[in-house]
Amino acid sequence: MKKSVILLLFLMLFLAPVAFVVTAMEPEPIVTKQSVAGPADAARTKEIARRFRALTESSGDSSIRLTQADMNSILASGTRAVSLLRSQAIVTPDTLSLRLSVDARRIPGGGWLNLKTAIGASDAGLNISSVKFGPFSLPESLVLPVLGYVVDWTLGDGLGSVAIKAIDGVAIDGQQVVLGIGLNAADRKALSQRAKQKLRSAANISSPEQVRFYFRALEKAVRDGKINPRGSVVQYLRFALEKAREKAAQGTGTDEVKAALLALATYCGHPKFADLIGDVIPEQQTGRQSGCSSASLQGRGDLRQHFAVSAGLKAAGDTGIAFAIGELKELLDSNKGGSGFSFDDLTSDRAGIKFAEVFLGASPELQGGLLKLLVSEEAILPRTDDLPSGLSEADFKRRFGNVDSAAYKAIVREIDKRISSLPIYAVQ
User: Fold this and answer.
1) Residue 279 and residue 276: Cα distance in Å, rounded?
2) What span, in angstroms and rounded, lies between the C-alpha atoms of 279 and 285?
3) How far apart are CA 242 and CA 280, in angstroms?
4) What does the DSSP 8-state code read for residue 100?
5) Of the candidates 308, 297, 318, 296, which has an alpha carbon nearest to the alpha carbon of residue 355?
6) What's the pTM value of the predicted model, to 2 decimals?
7) Are the C-beta atoms of 66 and 181 separated by less than 8 Å?
8) What is the crossing angle of helices 39-57 and 393-400, to 10°?
C-alpha cells in the first residue's frame, strides 16, 4: 500500500508539469518572425557587453540604459544558436514586454510554447506586472518568488535573490529602459565569480589542472625545440592530441581529448579562453605571448585562432554556440573599422568545430588512425582563397542580405561540403 502511494505521488509530481506544458501549447507563435542578426546587431551586442562588464567592475549604485533596438539585437544574437527559439522586446511608454516563442511542433500533438512577460516602471525593485505562459496567466504574487527560486537554484548560495534585488528601479523613457543597479563590492564579486564557475562547470572539466597539464606540455615542447614556433598550427594539434591519447592509454585521467582541445584553444587561440576554465595559465606566463603566437594556418595567424577557439568551444559544449560566436565575430568585422566579413574565417570556424567533433567522438583506436592523417594543413582546412573576404557591412547586405538568406546559406553549404570531403573528417 505504501509503495502504491509513493508511486502515485511520483506520477503526479512528474505528470503534472508535463500536462501543464502540453495544455499550454498554442497553435500560433506570439513572435511571428525569427530575429536575424546582422552587422549592426553584432556591434550593438558587443557594446552592451562592454557596458555590462564595466558595470560589474564598478562599485556603488549605477545604471544601464537599453533601447528597444539594443534588446532586440541581444536577443537576435543570443538566439542565433537556437533555431527553435524566437524572441522579441517591445517598449511602450509604461511597459517593457519580453516575448518568447518555442517551436514544439516536432513533438506529436505539439505546437508553440509562448511566454509573455510585462515589466512596469518602478522606483523600488523589479515590477513584473504580468506573466502569461500560453493561455495561462501566472499569479503576480508567485512570479518574483519563483524567479528568485530559479535563479537561486542556478547560481546557488542565495545569489539569485541578490541578483534580483540588485535591480533597484526601472525607468521607461520613450523606447528606452533604464535599469538602476545597486550592488555592494562583495555581492558584485560573488556574482561574478559564480557566473564564471557556472561557465566552467558547463565545460565538464574536473579541474583546471587537467587543462594546465597540456598548456605546460605545449610550452615545454616549443622551448625544447620539438615544435617550430613559426611553423604550422598542425604541429601543436598533433602534439597535444598524441599526448592526450598516451595519457588516456595509461588510465591516468578521463576526457583527455577535451582537456587537450581546451588547452589548445587557450594556447593557440586566445588566452582569454582560460576564463572559461579557470587557473590554466601558469603565473610566470600570464601577460606573455604563448609559443604559438607566431604559428599559422594557411599562412595566417587569424585562421589559426579561429580554428583553435572554435574547436575549444565545441569541446566546452555546443556546436551551435561555437558557430554563432564565430558568425557574430564576422558580422562585427563587417562594421566600420573591422577587417570585413570573411568566409575564409568562417570556414576555419566550422572546420575547428568539425575537428573537435571528430576527435571527441573517436575511440582510442580510431584516434590513432586520425592522428596518422593529421600531417598537413590540407588535412584539416579546405581551400579558402576563392571565398568572399573582407566584405563591408554595405557589401555584405548587398550580396547576402542577412545570415538567413538563401545566398548566405548556399555558401555555408559549400563550405561544409569542402570540409566534409577531407579524409580526416570522413573517418568513422
Assistant:
1) 10
2) 12
3) 20
4) E
5) 308
6) 0.69
7) no
8) 130
Distance CA 348, CA 380 (A): 9
Q: Which three cell numbers mark 317?
A: 559544449
Q: State the DSSP code for 121.
A: -
In terms of C-beta density within 10 A (0-12 exposed, 13-18 middle, 19 or more buried), how is residue 273 classed? Answer: buried
Task: Say if CB 310 and CB 350 are below 8 A apart.
Answer: yes
What residue ranges do the domains of the chain occupy? 24-200, 203-426
Which amino acid type is present at position 27? P
Q: Which residue has the cell 599562412?
A: 299
Distances (CA, A) of 55 to 64, 77, 181, 183, 405: 8, 21, 9, 10, 36
Digit-by-digit pLDDT tens for the chain (428 residues) are: 555 656 555 555 555 566 666 777 888 998 887 776 666 766 777 777 777 767 666 665 577 888 888 888 878 776 666 678 888 888 988 888 888 898 888 877 778 888 888 888 888 878 888 888 888 887 777 777 767 666 666 556 666 666 777 777 888 888 888 888 776 677 666 666 666 666 566 556 557 888 999 999 999 999 999 999 999 999 999 999 999 998 888 765 568 999 999 999 899 988 888 877 777 887 777 778 899 999 999 999 999 999 998 898 888 775 455 555 555 555 545 555 556 788 998 899 999 999 999 999 888 888 889 999 999 999 999 999 999 988 888 888 889 888 788 998 999 999 999 999 999 998 65
Helices (H) and strands (E) in the chain, counts: 16, 8
